[in-house]
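Internal QA ticket QA-208
Title: Verify multi-chain structure generation after dependency bump
Assignee: T.L.

Test input:
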Amino acid sequence: MRSVTYLAVAIFLLAIVGPFFAPYDPAAINIPKRLSPPSSEFFLGTDALGRDILSRLLHGARYSLGLAFLISFIALVIGTVVGLLAPLGGKIADWLIMRTTDSFLAFPELVAAVVIAGLMGAGMWSLIFALSVTGWMRYARVARGIGLSLQSRGYVIQAKLAGLSPLAIARWHYLPSLVPSLTVVWTGMFARAIIGISTLSFLGFGVQPPTPEWGAMLLDARIHMRSTPLQMIWPGLAVVVSVLAINLAGDALRDSVAERSEHQ
Amino acid sequence: MIGTVAGLILRAIVVLSGTAIITFALLWNAPGDPAQAIAMARFDALLTEDVIDQVREEVGLNTSFWSAFVDWIAPLLVLDFGYSSVTGRPVGPDLWVAITYTFPLAVMALAIGLAISLPLAIIATKNPGGMLDRLAVATASMGTAIPAFWLGLLLILLFAVQLNWLPAMGARTPVHSILPAMTLGFGIAASLTRIIRSGILEARDQPFLPAIRRRGVPVRAIGRDHIAPHAAVPVVTVVGLELAFLLEGLVVVEVIFGRPGLGTFLTSAIVARDFPHVQAVVVLVALVFVTVNLIIDLIYKRIDPRIGEHDA
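Actual output:
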């Protein structure tokens, strides 16, 4: 399992330093060399405008993985705050917050994201907003569940009696216990965000074409399926390998978290 | 019992109202002037300020958020979806046509998913940790990592472009739904296999099983009467999640395969900014989703009365 974690880290690093390894400018149009097969000049071939696919993949990692990181992190923050407000705010606040969470959950996340991003007008900011606003509910449920179970613990009651503010209790007593479980949820949501970004971009509601995002690249490649099928393989493979690595790393993390809580 | 059932139904109603408010807030705040969009759809070129203002007044867009919300929700409560702001045709019949394309596809996909995952999970759990088990788990992990749209494209590439066995685009004959149903079915099979597998493994660890075995109950009967009901509990939960996956997948798959179902209906409505169409799909999806989850909660209560007692 350690090797999978390394792979996940490697993919993550690739998003940061990947563009420096790109042999060509990802936007450089080279019409005479359009749709060329993989060769020593273009390792993965070129697309319909003669742009080097390998360079586009490497630059695209920044969008596909970087945006997924940003989105899952924003959702993590929203979800944790909402989830902790529930046990801290008392019964009525808890009920209201959980019903709001349920209302957001009453809709398949990706369908909601498509509607929101589409109505806001396609673009990167709509994409970030749409996927963050539809992705925080799982964190909130986990945070609330753990918060409720901590409520009756001796040290939390003592902190309350000592006159600590709810904010301080959340910071010093709830947050540390939340970290392991929320990290596990986060890996899952990170992987989902990668798929979400590429799906929305593929549908035309996300990152817009000249930008080398993986889903947008697939949208470009789809028209040339008959002549250059390989062009369609690479971006999809990049999505699958990243998602798989992150999911497996998440599984390993979940197992070790479960083991540690058993030892306690 | 009656109290909890009423509570669950009340909760579903509260959730649906919340969803309605969120949806309306979204439409209300959508960029661009909706009055202008409607005026453009109705009168084409006659776009003076006066015309737009009159449309705004007529549609009730000049009122406050809450009174506009009441005007908006009232017809939806009796499932009156109004008229398309692009074609001017009533939304209901067009929506129904889209459903007749989407529903059979969803059923086929679920059937394929179950037909693959159930035998696979049973074979895998014959020898947990063995070769077959590992293979099944690896395939399932792989399957959950593949985005539906890419799988769809790969299947088109293989079966329609390279082998030329199956048609890829459109929905004229039942044969046309084989590839889209396979795309969705494989995705469902991947997640179901993992869940059914761990359900069976967990049910097998139940402490009462050795006692039953020692009483001389045949292996087959133990599997049927004692392991299967236990394994069913997580599976029932997952049906709700699967439905979400299915609806998400349907949108993408219908667009890829050019099927005139709900997904295509939704995406083309978004592009055309046809708000009545968009909200019809949103309301329908939320209704189906909340109803199914309500039914799951009710079934759940029946299978295992302990569940959900401490849930708010």
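Spot checks passed. Residues 51-263 of chain A form a domain with the MetI-like fold fold (CATH 1.10.3720.10).
Status: verified.
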